[in-house]
Amino acid sequence: MKESHQLPVYLCILFILVGCSNDDEALPRELVNDFTMIEVGNYWVYEWYEIEPNGVTTILNRRDSVYISEVIETGSKSLFLREATFLGTPRQSYLFDSANTIFRFSDREILLTLDESIEQRKLLGFENDPIARVTYSLEEGTDYVEVPAGRFECINFKGVIEPLQSDYPHGERYNFHHYAKNIGLVSMRTQFYNSPNDIEMRLVKYGKN
Q1: Most exposed residue of 5, 152, 158, 205, measured as fewest CB within 10 angstroms of its CB?
Q2: Do 9 and 130 meet the contact criterion of CB atoms below 8 Å apart?
Q3: Can you list the positions of beta strands (E) in 75-149?
Q4: Segment 97-128, tens digit of pLDDT
Q5: CATH number assigned to the domain with residue range 16-208, chosen from the 4 options 4.10.280, 2.60.40, 2.40.360, 1.10.10
Q6: Could you read off the pLDDT of 168-186 as tens digits, one per residue?
Q7: Spatial distance between the Cα atoms of 48 and 147, rounded to a whole number of angstroms
């Protein structure tokens, strides 16, 4: 990957939460925070990889981290401050748990839900000229995911990216967010929209300060 690449397209201009009927058997009743582990003092360290369409994988010289530094009690909810870096760029956000779903406080973007009937939809790009539509939902079943920190059984909050430009050469694409129980986010796959390659963040270590 070259430093001249643009950052991944994560500009969100529209969120829609949709409840869909689902006749499949639901996951056992578990708590979403068993998978996100949003607790003060918890931290995670990740390293990045680039994956070509033929499967060739290259480790990148980038590491990012996530740390839950404090909690603010508002009376109606507990807001947890997540301090993170994403491709080296610092990010802060408050997170809260509602209806077995972890939301970002500022815009109610979903990090993870255990409700299979919920979909989150958003448009990527500019309001008057969106380039793609992405739909996130909890995938059925589990995946075994191997990362530097170990091998974990994970649930996947999956994004399906549908391009809205007829001349887009790379077709439908996918984002993966794999969470393991009592661990947190194990891996996350996304892409540079103008590149055929994916990039993936993999867990190196985790713990509690």
Answers
A1: 205
A2: no
A3: 78-86, 89-98, 101-104, 110-113, 118-126, 129-138, 143-147
A4: 999 999 999 899 999 999 999 999 999 888 78
A5: 2.40.360
A6: 888 899 999 999 999 999 9
A7: 11
